[in-house]
Amino acid sequence: MSYFSPCGYVAPAYYDRVGSNWLQSFTAGFLTTCGLQAVGTPCVDAGEELPLHGSIANQPCEHSYWEEDGDAIRLHFLTKDEVIFGRKMVLRRTIEISKTGNFFTIEDEIGNTGDKTEPLEILYHMNMGYPLLDEDSVVTIPSVGVTARDDHAGEDMENWMHMEKPQAGYQERCYYHRFSGDKGSASIWQPKLGIGLEISFNPQSLDGFVEWKMMGIRDYVLGLECGNCYPDGRDVMRETGMLKFIKPGETVSYEVKVTLKDREK
Fold first, then answer.
1. DSSP code, position 61
2. DSSP state letter for 232
3. Do residues 205 and 228 lie in contact, with contact meaning Cβ atoms separated by under 8 Å?
4. Which of 64, 79, 119, 230 is most buried as measured by Cβ atoms within 10 A of its Cβ?
5. Is the pLDDT of residue 101 over 80?
6. Which CB contacts under 8 angstroms, 24+ apart, belong to 239-242?
């Protein structure tokens, strides 16, 4: 179902926030969590130098355990994103795998344990790969508006939903989707295999949905990514008014549901 990066599994000890090193530790898999201090383009915001996609994906989990009952298996994780003289945030994640239905949920609670208000960005970087992804895959994103991230993506705007065969020298294209109401979704269906999945989320809280189309050779992946921002850098999100904040002692919650399917509708 998912894409696995050429770099494979990389231990947190090998992560260096400087330059493009994040890409050398981007295992991808079905989900890479981006944030919490930054998402997207490296930048300097409010005097702070911010790396590509933040550092939470490369923080070792401090504590984890699992539990099981007749309905589900639940995996619990505690990860701290805290530094001296700076941000102090804690991510408490529960992944609940249903035993009665073909779905799982990701439930996150992010708390500010510091004494000052902090910017908060998060992106659920979900990565579809071969054989779920190929030129015949049907991608459906029922958004109310689609915007190309840049001129390069805009040149092929009419094909944002059409997948292609792997191509040498392909340059990534990103499209930003907007939803109305409190129900957002994105799905991919593979007609040759008769399998697919749907990602569901609340666009009131996760208001920045990104479609990352990368049709390269070995770098062949479709990102269906809900988040509370777009990956243009925290400075840009501040300028556009999209940047979110979390107060001292405050907890913010997000939930994403993934449903596996064996029929298109």
1. P
2. B
3. yes
4. 230
5. yes
6. 242/207, 242/208
Longest CA–CA span in the chain (Å) reads 54
CB 247 within 8 A of CB 117: yes
Question: Any idea how long the chain is?
Answer: 265
The first and second tokens of residue 137, run together, are 């895959």
| Percentages (nearest 5) of helix, strand, coil residues in the chain | 10, 50, 45
Mean pLDDT of 53-58: 92
- 3-4/173-178 β-pairing: unpaired
Here the tokens at position 45 are 């915001």
pLDDT the model gives residue 20: 56
Read off φ and ψ for residue 132, nearest 5 degrees.
-60, -40
What b-and-e string marks burial along 173-195, b requiring 16 or more CB atoms within 10 Å of the CB?
bbbbbebeeeebbbbbbbeeeeb
* Spatial distance between the Cα atoms of 111 and 36, rounded to a whole number of angstroms: 11
